[in-house]
Amino acid sequence: MMTEQLAICGGKPVRDTYLPYGKQWIGDEDVEAVAQILRGDFLTTGPAIAQFEQEVAAYVGAAFAAGIGENDEVITTPMTFAASANCVLYQKGHPVFADIDPLTGNIDPETIEDLITPKTRTIIPVDYTGRPVEIDKIRQISQKYGLTIIEDAAHAYGASYQGVRLDYRPECPQTERFYERIVTLPPFPAMKDQDVQDVIEAVHKVIAHYLR
């Protein structure tokens, strides 16, 4: 039983220094790469974009898609950015929130199975703060009930679990580029591989138009 007064109520704080939400790693090579762009002719487009896309595509290896329809249920975690659930709402589905592991902040696989109904189609685990989820346990559940997995690896780009890198797993890893997140893939699960390619080509055409 806690007897000390909380810091917010005038008690002694647990920490004497500020606890940052996150901290980035920026080296001299990163600074020089940005400086080269600033010295060049292109700030938002140009050859650096194509190089970036090619290197990321080579690093990640593949794009995936999974279908979610109207009234389908998708089990995910409440400990995440809104996009993890919003992509389900965009498809007129229903996000269902499982509990989290208090030690990791990740979805607790032990709480998933009780939430599965005949309408459940997909599980969206999130590798929160770069810590990979227990995908082996989640995969067992998905295989038992015939569900797909769309893994939100936005915080864990390049991370690995049991020796396998997240973006090379058979699930559908998604990553984003938003503040502390890294690289964006289309967040609409109903998109097929050809749909993704069509969007990429359309964006490239628009960019090319403004470069003329």
UniProtKB/TrEMBL annotation:
Pfam families: DegT_DnrJ_EryC1. GO terms for molecular function: pyridoxal phosphate binding; UDP-4-amino-4-deoxy-L-arabinose aminotransferase. Its EC number is 2.6.1.87. Gene3D superfamilies: Type I PLP-dependent aspartate aminotransferase-like (Major domain) (3.40.640.10). Keywords: Aminotransferase, Transferase. SUPFAM superfamilies: PLP-dependent transferases. GO terms for biological process: polysaccharide biosynthetic process. It comes from the Bacteria. PANTHER family: DTDP-4-AMINO-4,6-DIDEOXYGALACTOSE TRANSAMINASE, TRANSAMINASE. This is UDP-4-amino-4-deoxy-L-arabinose--oxoglutarate aminotransferase.
